[in-house]
Structure formats: structure tokens, C-alpha cells
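Fold it.
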Amino acid sequence: MNGQETASNDFVIEEELKKLPANPGVYIMHDSHDVIIYVGKAVSLKNRVRQYFQKGYKRSPKIERMVSRIERFEYIVTDSELEALVLESNLIKEHRPKYNTMLKDDKAYPYIKVTAGESFPRIMVAREQKKDGARYFGPYVNASAVRDIIELLQKLCHIRTCSRKLPAETGKDRPCLYYHIGQCPAPCQGFISQEEYGRNVKRLLGFLKGHFEEEIRDLTLKMQEASEELRFEDAARYRDLIESIREIGEKQKITGSDGDDRDVIAIAMDHPSAVQDPELSFARNAVIQVFFVRGGKLIGREHFFLSADPSDDPKEVLGAFVSQYYSGSPFVPRELLLEYEVPDLPLLEEMLTQKRGSRVTIRVPKKGVREKLIFMARENAEIVLSRDRDRLRREELRTLGAVREIAGLLGIPSADRMESYDISNISGSNSVGSMIVYEKGKPRRSDYRKFRIKWVEGPDDYASMEEVLTRRYRRAREGDPSFSKLPDLILMDGGKGQVHAAENVLSSLGFSIPVAGMVKDDSHRTRGLYYKDEELPIARDSEGFKLLTRIQDEVHRFAIEYHRQLRSKGQIHSVLDDIAGIGPARRKALLRAFKTFEAIRNASKEELARTETMNEAAAENVYRFFHKTENENNA
């Protein structure tokens, strides 16, 4: 691959368009803050990227909004369109650009794993398939249902779940509780032969493949025998097992006689006319419904929310989902049934075939059982969209709506990314600063930062805040990648003094970022925003006010939590870490062995020397330290 990147301040779009190659590749659009807002692929970068900037070229409302925000673009040339498709999917997942259709739910579905390569196989839950000789069944959508199935199979087939290495560890420990309640035949004690246990495993594998009829017949006979012999508790237990098996069998509805694995995928989207505010409703207004068919049986279903513009073509949204979802999925079925014929269908088939390692077919059924499955999936997607629409809009108002409210109050273009700062200390000791980040109204904890105050002595919050901001934005100016992303707004925990301190630091370092102070009332709650030497009131029942309150609480929590950590470490350090030869490992060993500092002080040299990791010299140092201290205090 070849890459192209140009510094934003030297970037002239018209000139860079002339340099575009005709090769396949991926293009990346940046806004004025150098944030990636769109990633796309192209057979010819030259033709595709130019279209965005051609006057008179018909574009959707979403693309119009996106193009108006482009400050620069970069591109990565690939050897093929397939390579571009894979790279596009990876970049979208990594950067989550605002104007791409976005899969919101990245989930790992559980499998049932049978360790068939072992002498006495086990049954367990697994989160991914590995090439380890085991048999995997799934994936299943519901983790709790998987645990229920495993519990049922233990009762039916008497398979162990422990991690003992058999037969090497046979007889080393007593049999566990499962043996005593009749769910495990205790191969760990040699109470069952490998051949007999193998028959249990064979029965288990048959059950997981969907062969329930024989189990039901056997259990029905046992139930009848127990009833005739007046063993009513046993009869009731067999009855309950039969009902559990039938319930699972009903859930695994037959959808085909070929026994193949396939996923059935349909989409529901809000109609553009139903959207009153395109910018706000851009978050989530599309639902993808997937039915998972394994071995010819419907084993489960799941829905996924996507961020898609109301003007987007459902075919393109569906295609984006298939690309993103299956590029990260551990399992690709032999066949996908889609509601629409998506763009680049042959290319998607090729990508999925490479990932699976065998042929994958994508079909758009028009009749028969497969079409009925698509209809059922679409109906389910529409139900989910209708059911969750109000909840999603409330969530958008709580986050995106609140962000827009704050930006509108201050008269700034955007407050999508906000940083907030606070200082915490007790009489100036262990003074720390905290920086938290909110993006689109939600905390982005991976971008939180902690600062231990180094330059300021005593309880001077203004000077401490200046130090924190200086260190943070100096590192941004130096190109430190962990501090490179700049906010749209800085929120200070305080009023005029804190705001001016922040503005002075930013000005001295050459940054122009809006700074507002969260002014507090007598109850230490935010009552308004101090901005440009004016206090702006904000309604207490508004979503913007509630978001500011959450930010204020979070920045306090983060600062206090860090301060407590340092105080705790300082207390331990003052007692043990000043002793020669006592480092972190020996400190932990002493505390494990003696539990309290008083017990360490009262221990003899011999007792100290017997402690793990200690030696006679270290024990002598600890003993002399405590007894010397006592002698000095008594003098």
C-alpha cells in the first residue's frame, strides 16, 4: 500500500484533487479540527473523490453536510478493490467517523465448547472458536441460555465441567459436589471407564446437533416407570427434563432440511419525512435484524442499531452492516440471505469467502421459505425500531441534544468534545489535577488524564490549574499523540478566576479554544456558565443543565479518586518504603504475613527473616528501623 497525507495548513483542495491517482484505495475526509468525519473506498480514487467537490453533482443531504465540513483529505492506495473494502471497514471501526453508517453494537457471542480431544471431554462456554481440536456449537445469542443448556446437559449426559487434567490427576483430590448430586460420574476418581464416558459424550454431541427425539423417548419411559413404582419425585424430575428439552427444540425451529448454516438479514429505517431534526436524529434511526440459522435450525436472533442518515439508501446501509459486522465476526456462515441486493455484492462474497476459507454465497430470495424468513426478519426489525424509537430519541436529547444546547447558549459552533478540569488536595498535600473528556454528551474514559502537581507548593488551586493546563497543552503542541486531540470547549470547575487562568495558559501556548466556567451556587451545584466575562443562566430542568451537572460530578469524582490513591500510597511509603532493602515485593510479603504494621514492629528478627522474599540482612534493617525509631521517640 502507498499513503498520502498533507499538513492541514498547507492543504489546498483544488490542487490536491489534481494529484489523485486512478488506483483503487481508501479516502479519508478531515474537518477543521482534523477529526476524521468520513472514510470511503473507490475503484478509482481520482474519479470518486473529485465527485464530492464537483458543482452540480447530485448528492444526498447527508453528503452535502459532510462536504461543507471537509478541510482536507488523505488517501491510501491499495492493490485491489477487495483490499480497499477490508481497509475501509477497519478504518471505520477504528475512527468511527460521524458521516459513515455505523454499526453500534460490537458483540462477541458465546459458543458451547466440547473438548473432544481430551480423554474425558468437558463442556464449557467459549467466547471464540480456536483451532484446538475441540467441537464448537453456536454462536448463541443469549449467554444465560447457553449456561442453561450446559446445566441441562450435565444432568442428562453426566459430563464434567472441571479443569482437572485427566487421567494424569486421577485420584489426587476428593470428588466434587457434582458427583454427590449425581451430575458427574467422577472420572477424576476412576469411577467410570473412558469407553463408558465416551458414550455419554456421544449422547451429548447428538443432543447439540438437534437429535432430541431419542432423549424424549428414553425420559418418557423412565417417567412412566417411576410413576408406576410410586416414585413421584423421580417422575416429576423426568417430566421437567422433558419439558426443558421440548422448549429448546421449539426454539430451534426448523428452517430448512439441508442442515446448512446461514444468516438472514433485514433492515428497518425511519422514513425521511418522519425526521424533524436531521442533525439530532443522525445518531440511530436504523435497525438491522439478524436470524442465526445453524445446522438448519434457527438458534437465535439479534438486532443491531446503526447510525444512518434518513436520506441514505437502505441497500447501502445494509451493505455497510455486512462489511463491518462480518469483518470482525469469529464465524461466517456458508450463506447470507439479504433483504436487498447490496452494492459491491460480488466483492463482499469474495471478502467473506476469504475470511471463512470456503465458498460464501449471498442471496436475495424472492420466493419460498427463504423469502418468508426475510419477511419475518424485516417485521422484527420494524417492531424493534418502533418500540425503541422514543427511548432512542430521549437518549439523543440527553446527550446530543444537551451538547447542542450548551453550544447554542455559548454561541459556539460545536461542543461535541468537551474537557473539564478539577484540583484536589488536603491542605496542599498530594495535590492532583484531573482532566475528563465528554464526547457527544458521553464520557470518553480512555481519554481521561491524571496530573500530580509538581511545580506548586501548598493549597493554591489557581496555580495548580495553570500547571495542569500548561503541561496538557504543551504536550499537545509538541505532538504527543495521547494529548493531540483538542476539545471544542473547556469547562472549568469554577468561575472568573479559573476561566482567566485557563485563557492565559492557552493564549501563551498559541491555542484558541473557548473556555467556560461552571459557576456554583451555595449548595456547590452548577447554576450557570461564566463565559466571556458574563454569567449565563441555564434552566435547571434543561438537558444541558443536567449534562453540566454530570460533568461536574464526574470531574470531582475522578480527582478525588486519584487523590485518595496517592494518600494511600503515601501512608504505606512512610512506614516501609524508607527502609533500606525493602521494595514493593518485600513490602507486600510483609503485609501478607503480618497483616498490620503493629505486628511487623513487634516481630523478632527471626520471624521477619522467615517471611517470603526476605533475608537476614533485610530482616535486620526492618527490625533496626522500628526499634531505632522507638528509642528515638523515648529519648
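Residues 399 and 441 are 4 Å apart (CA to CA).
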